[in-house]
């Protein structure tokens, strides 16, 4: 897999955001998750060093803690957990499980029993 620098990830995320906006069905009576959560993709930019596929995972023993800017972004995403799920499953080049590990890695309060696409959102990385 080709490695991209943070700036390239930001460009990729903006491109994905634009594509999601263009694919919206204007006749839909309720806003789709993509419309509500498009900004969630951009929230992941400060987390790119922690979640790039192929690097030591966030939940791995001895992994460095996420950047404080990443944890702030995760705090915002956890206000709307469906947006965390959208970002985790949509952000190309990011490992979905590692994105879902970030709230716990940032010591954020995660309600037990939350899932994204059948993958549990950990409440803690300790067990």
Write up what this structure looks like:
- The structure is a single chain.
- By secondary structure, the protein is mainly α.
- The protein has one domain (6-22, 32-120): Hydrophobic Seed Protein.
- It has helices at 6-22, 33-43, 48-51, 68-77, 81-90, 96-105; strands at 115-116, 119-120.
- The chain has a two-stranded antiparallel sheet with strand order 1-2.
- The termini are far apart.
- Residues 17-30 have low confidence and may be disordered.
One letter per element, helices H and strands E, the order comes to HHHHHHEE
The CATH architecture comes to: Orthogonal Bundle
Briefly, what CATH class?
Mainly Alpha
**Mean pLDDT across residues:** 73
Helix content: 40-55%
Given helix and strand content, the structural type is: mainly alpha
Report the count of strand segments.
2
Tally of separate domains: 1
> Which strand-content bin applies to the residues?
under 5%
- What is the radius of gyration? 14 Å
What is the terminal-to-terminal distance?
Answer: 30 Å
Shape: globular
Number of helical elements: 6
The name of the CATH topology is: Hydrophobic Seed Protein
- Largest pleated sheet: 2 strands, antiparallel
The spatial strand order of the largest sheet comes to 1-2
Low-confidence stretches: 17-30
Topology:
Elements: H1 6-22, H2 33-43, H3 48-51, H4 68-77, H5 81-90, H6 96-105, E1 115-116, E2 119-120
Antiparallel strand pairs: 1-2
Signal peptide: 1-23
Keywords: Signal
Pfam families: LTP_2 (PF14368)
